[in-house]
Amino acid sequence: MHAAACTSAQTTRPSPMFSIHPRYSAVRFGVIGVSAASLVAAIAVSTGGASAATGGDPGFTRHTITQKVSLTGSGPADQTLSAVQYEPTGARVKGIQVMVPGVTYDHRYFDLKTSRGWVSQAREAAKDGWISVAVDRLGTGDSSSPAADQLNGATHSATIHQLITKLKAAHKGLPVALVGHSMGSAVAIREAATYKDVDAVVVTGFMHHSGSGQLVFNAMMHPAAEDAAFKGRTIPDGSLTSRDGMRHQFYWPFNADLSTVKGDDAVKQITTQGEFTAFGDELINDTFGKNVDVPVLSLVGEHDGLFFDPADLKKALAAEPASYGSSPDVDVKSVLNAGHDLALQRNADSTTNTINEWLSDKL
After folding, report:
1. How do residues 246-292 score in pLDDT, each as one tens digit?
2. pTM metric for this prediction
3. Residues 6+ apart with CB under 8 A from 332
4. 3-class DSSP state for residue 69?
């Protein structure tokens, strides 16, 4: 296996949910101090220098696609999976990027409208020549909402596989890459390892290593039924969401736009314990990563405390390729001045360009 691990010196520029396994760094109170400091630092979130693009960008078409899917892949197709497809109009089509968001997000993680315009990895990928398909996982957005105990890693990988099968039939001969974020990355890893139907996997906001920031994340979550954002809406029992006004914890606050954080909070979604379990299993045990046999790109923000404490960044980056033992090519990089939500930081274009260039090279 050829594995290229980029350290921080080679970064890319412009009740608990998780259990921490002994193999990973221990929780240290010093990092809780860092996380608490970022709460205060959020006051410094800038309102100038928009990263958002203006509406009506040329170069792509945008439309919603839906598909009837089975929760297991073999049972009745009684659920609806929704996604938004962005298709290039002026560029040669290079392939398909299927984008899978993380917990408490729908497709708008990849295509967020803010008071200052669009912040959109999906649109930028389309303008670069990729058919980008941003998914509403079951339980989010315009997709069906089955019972919370039916929403887990197996369900999501099975339904994403059915979508990929449809896309490959509609766009014969085009290479397909899965682009995940956070828990969506764990889903992408599982799908690729299980169904062997994609040509590359891009993992963002996920590593097989844990940091003390998970404690802050756990504190952010509460029952969705208690959240004013879901008042009057029918949601599955046992659903969770982020507490009001806490989305800034997903960002490196010194490189975030306040309008983006507010837009993010306004469209938050639900998540389930089963999704957290699938995330934790992959993080701790490399359950599916070791069986991914296509090229892998892994990108993580240099300030993403979910996966490493500050002193552990270089060690975590160097260790990560070993979690993809069957992959012929693994590239691991950290993104400067970014927290967990790489696609929504001010320098989101740096992440998007890195992904597009890497995929153009590999596919």
Report:
1. 999 999 999 999 999 999 999 999 999 999 999 999 999 999 999 99
2. 0.87
3. 3, 4, 5, 6, 298, 300, 317, 320, 321
4. strand
